[in-house]
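Backbone Fold Data
Goal — fold tokens
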Amino acid sequence: MLEVNNIWKSYQGQLLLRGISFTVAEGETVCLLGPSGSGKSTLLRIIAGLESPEQGQVCWAGEDLAFVPAHRRIFGLVFQDYALFPHLTVAGNVAFGLKMLDLPKGEIDLRVATTLKNVNLTGFNGRRVMDLSGGEQQRVALARALAPNPRLLMFDEPLGALDRSLREQLMAELRRILRISGVPAIYVTHDQEEAFFLADRVLLLHEGEIVREGTPAEVWADPGSIWAAKFLDAGNVLPGVVLPGGQAKTVIGSLPVEWQRSHQVGEKVTLLVHRRGIQQVSDGPVSGVVTDVIFRRDGYKVTLENDPDFYLPEAPQMGKRIYLKFPPSGVKCLS
């Protein structure tokens, strides 16, 4: 469907995108995940036709879109700030793109009604958009993007201005809508929770390059680089030295490692001790007295005296000495 080939772009003399290439298949949701300044939004604007690359191609079904203006690409775009027309009603906003297509009034009315139903806004047709809540306005923006039956949907941090509970609700609705519609989508965000919840495939962007690509489970289990592991907060990143027998020496003791390639004994490496798989046992290679326990949504962040923080599924007792075991699959070599 969509092919992005070797896109380069500079801004104020600095390279912003460095040879970006990826594809989006039919019905697939791809999330561009990265920090501010990594080039995500600029890449989205290039795909939409709102900016031009200095080098590279954007193709749809094999057709180069270089000379196809934005309104002819039939791509829907949803922004963080909604970009609604304040002087128009909800129905007027949703119908705007349909009127640009010169569709008959009866078909426009039918599409507006159907699309508003799909985003749970039935009966909102005559409401002023400025009287709506943030979540309702975002639904109107989504309906406006969906109404013309776009070939591709693109989202630029669409939930960034919403509180957590509303964001989670809209994430679930958005996932449902994308699955029902079957429209391929590109979703830009700096929030890994959003990316992992919505994406079929995640592209990690760092300094204008894709540094990791895969399903959410693949990227989380093996970030592939020091930067990615820290950005995702996947676990502890520790220096180590290769030992015989599949082990590595670290500041917290000797650990079994799932090596991706061969290393020489004595070689210095950087390891990821993944948040998943750490087990509290009666006796283990790492021990310490618990000095702090903080609840996180996916477990507990536990601080031991003189050791890094670890993540455990259950909360240990404060002031108690505990012992930890690390399975080989939970310790990756990053360098």
Observations:
- The chain has two domains: 2-226, 228-333.
